[in-house]
Amino acid sequence: MAFTYDSLMGHRIPEVRQRLTARDSVLYALSVGFGQDPLDTSQLDFVDGHRELKAVPTMSVVLAHPGFWMADPATGIDAVRVVHGEQRIAMHRPLPIEGEVIGTTRITGLVDKGEGRGALMYSEKEVRDAGSGTLLATTRSTTFLRGDGGFGGPSGPVAELHALPGTPPDSVVEMPTRPEQALYYRLNGDDNPLHADPDVAARAGFPRPILHGLCTLGIVGHALLRTLGDYESGRFRELAMRFSAPVYPGETVRVEIWRDGSFRALVPERDVVVINNGRAVFAAPEEGAAR
Prior knowledge:
Elements: H1 5-9, E1 16-20, H2 22-31, H3 41-44, E2 82-91, E3 99-112, E4 119-129, E5 135-145, E6 171-176, H4 181-185, H5 198-203, H6 213-229, E7 236-243, E8 252-257, E9 262-267, E10 272-282, H7 285-289
Antiparallel strand pairs: 1-3, 2-5, 2-7, 3-4, 4-5, 6-8, 7-10, 8-9, 9-10
């Protein structure tokens, strides 16, 4: 069944309560490439349980996640044709390594691009500490509903994209991915067969399974945390980016970073931009230590 503006805006997404363990935090870090350099002790702080562990800030996108709720027939969404378009993260407190968290997700806006042109859906998830109610992170997503244009909704407003500087990047970081990386990342809760089953990938128009978009985000976030945050997770404040093409497991992600926090990512093997219009905000070292 198709949806109307009111029916989808009023759709209730179940609240999710998650018991987070240190194992979960380490698994997330490993799934986005931490620990690949065995001599980089800063990376070990996120994956070695014999150390005082830190949580990777981008883990906020998978914490207390409601799953692929768009596949619920009650939404009216053509779930086979949805594409993750943009992602934003705002960190309010450093994430815990373990504990209980609650995720509350809601739809915040819809834009009708017209019949045959699809629609944009904006959604937001708040992640809170279950005990204190403290807001830890807010994540915002833009989803392109390719099969759902022409439902009679508003034609705007559309969120503006960050413009990259016209100068060469100040830093370039090469981030390798592993052939089986999508299989590891699925253990964070997203087991969409598009990322594992060659037949499903072929039906979706891909020659082989693709990496999760949020896994690519985690890899890029790792490069930013290294370059702009010196692996001090408390300095990570904000991240915004647009997904422009998929990554295939085993490819290299080349992250181009500017001093003002602008960034984009490319796959040099195919000379294609996979992340564009990126912007990150990191606090000064003394501010990060004070959180």
